[in-house]
Task: inverse folding
């Protein structure tokens, strides 16, 4: 009886899906039966290991499908980019609203302890894990493709230089890099621009490797790395960069974050904020449960603000916005390259972490590429100075950014 009911249910479901969209997807059941949702050869296969796992398919969303894949409720085979595309189209065919308000449990209280815990969860997997799919400098943020033909390593150096030129960094100036990662920006700022740098991170793994790289480069007296919360920084700096950091601050704390940065900025100084934003003006969750998946499995307590809210918070924090650039398609390409690297070295990476985390990252990177490509999320570089202050030596036009 159960087998007959299951077969009828799946036949009705597959017929309904095929009536709305053609997907190169095969669904295999535990008893060997299968359903193809397109006349073309399948690019993705979903194996349902037991009847109770059917619920993930019959109510598809990126959250449900992603959770089932990560937790072993469904076995999914195929390239990650195809998995995400087909999962999104399958979710869209369900007729449910794409974006929903963020549930209250996703709006987090941000304390030093909770933020440090979240950073450790994401970044302290292992340095070898990240090195396996990032570029040699281990830059874990959006690259900059000046003409679109660059390889990843070149595009990441161009991104760093693009940032440092935008803030008009000069020899002898002091630079604070908030969320310094493995030190690539601070090292480049010292080597190529002659700056004296301080980088801060909450990841012990990042701090350790950054210090090793600084010593190897002979920059021990020019670059310092601190294991420190941004709320505890003291001093004045000519230039400040925040790259891929403010997504961890919390939308309710952005004004205070930028007020802290304004207080650290020396007279005549410049700050660059490079970060991910939502493209939804109501700041609802990323479509089809993708945001809920990332919040649970990838970035605990991460929150995305709309660009309008970011600019408002900057003004509330005492900063004046002087330049804004959208790099959304640059991040789509960056994430696609990371995904290709990850899949090309899958066997090695699988030995560096457990199976569950491997599956999380497998779909997370491809999911980000898809989200950026489809304008669900974006990436903005915003250059600021102190509100009401004469920019002083900063050139009148933007030409200086593109020498």
Result:
């Amino acid at each position: 009886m159960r087998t007959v009911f299951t077969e009828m249910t799946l036949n009705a479901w597959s017929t309904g899906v095929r009536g709305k969209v053609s997907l190169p997807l095969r669904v295999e059941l535990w008893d060997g039966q299968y359903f193809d949702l397109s006349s073309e050869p399948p690019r993705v296969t979903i194996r349902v290991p037991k009847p109770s796992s059917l619920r993930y398919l019959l109510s598809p969303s990126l959250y449900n499908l992603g959770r089932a894949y990560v937790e072993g409720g469904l076995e999914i085979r195929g390239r990650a980019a195809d998995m995400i595309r087909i999962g999104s189209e399958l979710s869209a065919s369900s007729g449910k609203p794409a974006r929903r308000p963020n549930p209250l449990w996703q709006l987090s209280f941000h304390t030093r302890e909770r933020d440090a815990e979240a950073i450790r969860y994401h970044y302290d997997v292992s340095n070898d894990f990240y090195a396996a799919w990032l570029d040699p400098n281990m830059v874990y943020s959006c690259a900059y493709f000046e003409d679109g033909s660059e390889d990843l390593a070149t595009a990441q150096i161009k991104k760093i230089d693009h940032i440092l030129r935008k803030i008009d960094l000069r020899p002898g100036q002091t630079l604070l890099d908030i969320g310094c990662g493995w030190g690539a920006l601070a090292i480049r700022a010292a080597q190529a621009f002659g700056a004296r740098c301080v980088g801060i991170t909450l990841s012990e793994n990042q701090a350790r490797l950054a210090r090793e790289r600084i010593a190897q480069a002979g920059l021990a007296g020019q670059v310092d790395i601190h294991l420190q919360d941004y709320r505890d920084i003291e001093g004045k700096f000519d230039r400040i960069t925040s790259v891929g950091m403010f997504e961890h601050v919390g939308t309710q704390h952005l004004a205070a974050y930028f007020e802290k940065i304004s207080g650290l900025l020396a007279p005549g100084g410049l700050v660059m904020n490079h970060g991910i934003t939502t493209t939804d003006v109501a700041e609802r969750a990323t479509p089809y449960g993708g945001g809920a998946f990332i919040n649970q499995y990838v970035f605990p307590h991460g929150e995305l603000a709309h660009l309008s809210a970011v600019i408002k918070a900057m003004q509330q924090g005492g900063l004046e916005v002087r330049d804004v650039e959208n790099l959304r398609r640059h991040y789509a390409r960056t994430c696609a390259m990371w995904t290709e690297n990850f899949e090309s070295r899958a066997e090695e990476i699988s030995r560096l972490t457990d199976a569950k985390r491997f599956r999380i990252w497998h779909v997370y990177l491809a999911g980000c590429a898809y989200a950026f490509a489809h304008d669900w999320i974006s990436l903005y570089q915003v250059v600021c100075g102190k509100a009401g202050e004469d920019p002083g030596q900063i050139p009148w036009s933007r030409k200086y950014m593109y020498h």
